[in-house]
Amino acid sequence: MLVALLDTCVLWPSLQRDFLLSLAFEGIYRPVWSSQILKELEYGETLKLIKRGGADPDVAAERAAHLVATMRSGFEDAEVSGWHSLVGTYELPDPDDEHVLAAAVIAGAGTLVTANTVELNPVAARRAVDEIAGRSGRHGRTLTFDEVLDLLVHRYGMGAAVRCLR
Fold it and tell me: How many Å apart are CA 79 and CA 31, to the nearest integer?
């Protein structure tokens, strides 16, 4: 089953979050996230309820915490741990995004679902693909860097991303 790390920016719009989690509930893919992603979601949801909905700050915080608790209980195996040691190793343009990639790597995610389109540092992108190649071999043969890129094109239709990496 495809493992997909869901970034905060795709979990925060309510309708989009409901759609993504409904697909996961139906077994289309397995969602994963980090405690940091859930913390960001809770913070953003609290602010939204206060600013857009006029909710009392305490009530807004309680509702946002309930949302995160419901996600944790509905997808008990989704929260990734052990990602902290990789933060800062990818040289991303935005250091605040390091935790997302680190959690995806630790989770063995086949995809990262995000709306963040900031361009990756080519060295960091190469390192991420090398890590994916390094994790291969557990359920088949070990893949090379180029074979991972070929998989991204043929299996996942990521031609534009692979052209950038090459």
Answer: 9
